[in-house]
Structures are given as C-alpha cells and as structure tokens.
C-alpha cells in the first residue's frame, strides 16, 4: 500500500471578540498554544487594542481564554481514506 503524506503544519486562530475567546486549531495532533507565547501575546494585544478603539470597558475584566480545538486529519492512500 502506497501512502502519500502531505506534511505541512498550519495554525488557525479564530477570535470571538465578545467573549474574548480564542479558538486554536493546529494541524499537529498535540498542538498546544502554550508553545507559542509570542503568538498568544500578539492576539491578547490585538483584543486590547480592539477594546480600546471601540471603547469597550464592560468586558475588560474578562480574561482572554484559549481553547484548543482538535483537528481531524485526512491521510490519503492510493484507494481509500483514513482518518486520524
């Protein structure tokens, strides 16, 4: 059986500006946003700049929360598909 693995790493961050939640999608099975402290700092600053620009004060006490979302990967072989 010939397997074709297209190994490219990607990360997607979805921002819910109302609840101050950041949803972290990572193509690596054990991806963890804590591995990327600079990325977390940048997105936290982005939310703070947004709040300052929009004069949003009532939500300022909410902490920014990160949620790691599991990503389903698709492995393509010559005749069938396998999910991991």
From TrEMBL:
Keywords: Hydrolase, Protease
Domain of life, per lineage: Eukaryota
GO molecular function annotation: cysteine-type peptidase activity
Residues covered by the Ubiquitin-like protease family profile domain: 3-44
SUPFAM superfamilies: Cysteine proteinases
Keyword Ion transport tagged: no
Pfam families: Peptidase_C48
Keyword field contains Lipid metabolism: no
GO BP: any one term: proteolysis
Family classification: Belongs to the peptidase C48 family.
Protein name: Putative Ulp1 protease family catalytic domain-containing protein
């Amino acid at each position: 059986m010939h397997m074709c693995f297209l190994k490219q790493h990607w990360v997607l961050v979805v921002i819910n500006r109302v609840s101050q939640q950041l949803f972290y999608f990572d193509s690596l099975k054990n991806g963890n946003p804590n591995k990327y402290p600079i990325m977390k700092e940048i997105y936290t600053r982005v939310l703070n700049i947004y709040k300052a620009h929009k004069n949003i004060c009532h939500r300022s006490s909410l902490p920014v929360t990160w949620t790691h979302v599991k990503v389903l990967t698709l492995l393509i072989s010559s005749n069938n598909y396998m999910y991991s």
